[in-house]
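Worked example 3 (structure in, sequence out).
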């Protein structure tokens, strides 16, 4: 099976994180195990989006952090009450130029 085509499709669909991982010749992230993990993560994300769309009200929590490579990132979480239980879900992580509020508003 041509797993490289799946990776290319994910990149075309907007998975910028995969594009950033395709820099070395020795690490293409195209094994069957990796692709199964990609599919699982995407499936989980679709479930979260579907769940959020069916909730009448929810909150978005945003946090800026800097990782070990000194890359500033914006992390988004959603929080809602579902069936009487408080649920918090990871929504997205995105690289940003800096953690200033004005920059976050403009870039996001």
């Amino acid at each position: 099976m041509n797993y490289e085509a799946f990776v290319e499709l994910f990149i075309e669909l907007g998975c910028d994180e995969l594009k950033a991982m395709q820099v070395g010749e020795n690490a293409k992230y195209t094994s069957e195990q990796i692709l199964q993990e990609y599919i699982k993560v995407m499936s989980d994300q679709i479930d979260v989006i579907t769940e959020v769309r069916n909730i009448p009200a929810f909150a978005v929590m945003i946090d800026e952090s800097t990782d070990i490579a000194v890359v500033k990132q914006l992390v988004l979480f959603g929080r809602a009450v579902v069936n009487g239980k408080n649920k918090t879900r990871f929504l997205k992580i995105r690289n940003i130029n800096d953690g200033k509020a004005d920059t976050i508003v403009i870039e996001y």
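Notes: The mean pLDDT is 76. The two ends are 37 Å apart (CA to CA).
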